[in-house]
Amino acid sequence: MASTLRDTGARFEMDEQGLTAFADYRRAGDRILIDHVESPPPLRGTGASGRLMEALSAEIRSRGLQITPVCSYAAAWLRRSETYRTLLD
Known about the structure:
By secondary structure, the chain is an alpha+beta fold. The chain is 27% helix and 34% strand.
């Protein structure tokens, strides 16, 4: 079961199975630049990174911001998302 999204100010984090998936980011004006998304090896292939992206995208939308994905995973996930692709700048 996934935990609640945490925002450290430089990283979004979510815990699953005692492990933490994360997305490093920077803020630039009204944009969040997602530099890197990663799940620990035991969580890979379980959808943990996708759940993280969904939660952080909802949070970013609630703040009225846009996303600039530097990370190729984040870019691909956002392009595929019917719900959140409008956050791409």
